[in-house]
Amino acid sequence: MKQPFxxxxxDDEPAARRLIRNLLGDYSHVVTIIDEAGNGREAITKIEMQxxxxxxxxxxxxxxxxxxxxxxxxxxxxxxxTTAYEQYAxxxxxxxxxxxxxxxxxxxxxxxxxxxxxxxxxxxxxxNSTGLQEIISQLKAPPKPSALSIKSGDRIMLxxxxxxxxxxxxxxxxxxYNTENQKYLTDQSLTALSEKLPAGFFRIQKSYIINxxxxxxxxxxxxxxxxxxxxxxxxxxxxxxxxxxDEIKEEFGx
Length: 254
Prior knowledge:
Strands 2-1-3-4-5 form a 5-stranded parallel sheet. A 5-stranded antiparallel sheet has the order 10-9-8-12-11. The chain folds into 2 domains: 5-138, 3-Layer(aba) Sandwich (Rossmann fold), CATH 3.40.50; 147-252, CATH 2.40.50.1020. The chain has 7 helices and 15 strands. The chain has helices spanning 14-23, 40-50, 66-72, 107-120, 129-138, 190-194, 245-252; strands spanning 5-10, 31-37, 54-58, 78-83, 99-102, 147-152, 155-160, 164-170, 173-178, 183-186, 201-205, 208-211, 215-220, 226-230, 237-239. By secondary structure, it is of the alpha/beta class.
């Protein structure tokens, strides 16, 4: 029996890395995760040291893009890109035996990548470094948005991420609160909004997403929950959901 592909998952969002781990649980006979990296520089160090057969590589990270990581590597593993930007899901990658997964990653699409990986073999000798460099030079990740677009009638308001303290779901709507406790209504769900938010935002229960930069205090609460006191005008107090206990512990290193 062939040994599983040794893989490193590279993404600046812990939740994204956790999702890939969970999805790969059904393919443990094909891929085993040996490590993770939360930024580009950490990824380069771990790839060069551990020489994995495969990396799951996020294109957009705060320090280096996925393309810049590849440029700096002397060791070339198989690569499966992960990206929320469909313009990067280009067929050109396929000529270099590189696959891509659009976020949010679906199990059926991951299955296709795994099948493709099995066909190519352990190391990808078909990668043409010169041709890949040409693609890399043409593709630059778009700057991360700095604001959230909210429609209000015919108007479109831009709420700067740094001004948002938390988001609260109520029935079919979501209210977005800023540091002055002003609130803005949107008909987008928390799940839809979370796909547009930068890494600084974190879901602590079914009805709340908070801005980690706007946490004033955290306290342990009853039944494995946590109390968050937010740094806004009213010092808003939000209690986490019990089912989010493990994720909160991991996110905040508790």
